[in-house]
Amino acid sequence: MYGMIATWRMAFEGVTKGTEILKHGGHAGDAIEIAIKEVENFEFYKSVGYGGLPNEDMEVELDAAYMDGTTFDIGAVAAIKDFANPISIARRLSKEEVNNLLVGEGAEKFAHKEGFERKNMLTERAKIHYHNRVKEVKELQLKPYSGHDTVGMVSLDVNENMIAGTSTSGLFMKKKGRVGDSPICGSGFYVDSKVGGASATGLGEDLIKGCISYEIVRLMKEGHHPQEACEIAVNNLDEELKIRRGKAGDLSLIAMNNKGEWGVSTNIEGFSFVVANQFQEPTVYLTKNINGKCIHEEASQEWLYNYMKTRTAPLVRK
Ligand code: ASP
Questions:
Q1: Which atom of ligand 1 is nearest to the CA of 148?
Q2: Is residue 263 part of a domain?
Q3: I want to staple 193 with a disulfide (CB 3.0 to 4.6 A). Which of 70, 223, 231, 269 is the partner?
Q4: Annotated catalytic, 150?
Q5: Catalytic site residues (predicted)?
Q6: 150, 166, 168, 266: which is the annotated catalytic residue?
Q7: What pLDDT sits at residue 144?
Q8: What is the pLDDT of residue 136?
Q9: How confident is the model at residue 8, as a pLDDT?
Q10: C-beta 213 within 6 A of ligand 1
């Protein structure tokens, strides 16, 4: 069996490429790297890689991680600037004995020495978003942090290897040096090839509080189907946060087990995800949480059309 699951519609083209690798007996790591690079390289996705939205100093600082569920190799970068493909740097770091998670300048130095492609990741479009947000925050007293999404994926190959990967520009308007859940093992991602893997998107500060990706893998190990595991973990964390803190941030999780069965849960409206396996071509779904149960519906042609249209629509500086 092979399979792949990923957060958000933006993963569709990547998952399509990744699945081609898996179909031909390729490694889950190659599938996930190619899939995430595809998202990182597409400039109209404003929360991952090139075109990602900047921090409050108008710098694009990126977080990414790669975990091998067979060897437990983990590599991650946080707050890295000016490199085209953070996922590839994270994968390379996963092969090191030590120094697996590098931040900022240290990560950049490593990437430079290893010959990774340098790129100014701040696009003209992202600059317009930045200027507009500064204006909105001042005039309408809006929260600056909305408008973020991480691409998180889990892949399974025919040799039963499982990989998890993430890549994000984190929260728009974050403080310089802010690190979210995406490069943090157990929170933004976790995978064990003997069980399955999970990955998160949403408010990093809250996802971290539940070590939620690990929690989902732990629940799958106890025998829960990925759908049940996702629902239990998301509902519990959402409830605990509300009890203890009066509110819960956005929490959306995807998971796949080592049989290619999958699950998704969220506490927001309109979470989209992409899934594929031996029996299913890459498909975009939208999910809704109704009283703790998540209902997944295939995205309509109209929704898919509008999605791309709004992403690529011309942008004007306000
Ligand atoms: N989880 C990411 C972060 O907090 C952002 C997101 O997934 O929307 O950095």
A1: 8
A2: yes
A3: 70
A4: yes
A5: 150 (nucleophile)
A6: 150
A7: 64
A8: 85
A9: 97
A10: no
- Total domains present in the chain: 1
Measured from the CB, is residue 252 less than 6 Å from ligand 1? Answer: no
Q: Cα(127)–Cα(160) distance, rounded to whole angstroms? A: 43
pLDDT tens sequence across 179-188? 999 999 999 9
H or E, element range at 239: helix 226-245
Ligand 1 centroid to residue 181 C-alpha, Å: 7
Cα torsion 95, 193, 297, 268 to 10°: value is -60
276 falls within a domain: yes
In a domain, 182, yes or no: yes
The C-alpha atoms of residue 190 and residue 215 are separated, in whole angstroms, by: 9
Numbered residues of the known binding site: 178-181, 201-204
Model pLDDT, residue 154: 99
Positions of the chain with pLDDT lower than 70, given as ranges: 142, 144, 147
Q: Which pLDDT belongs to residue 148?
A: 76
CA of 225 to the centre of ligand 1 (A): 25
Query: What is the model's pLDDT at position 138?
Result: 81
Q: Which domain holds residue 116?
A: 3-312
Q: What is the pLDDT of residue 137?
A: 83
Residue 318 lies in a domain: no
- Counting atoms of ligand 1 from 1, which one is nearest the CA of 63? 9
Triad 86, 92, 94: Cα angle to 5°: 105
What backbone torsions phi and psi does residue 47 show, to the nearest 5 degrees?
A: -130, 10
Q: Which helix (H) or strand (E) holds 164?
A: strand 162-168
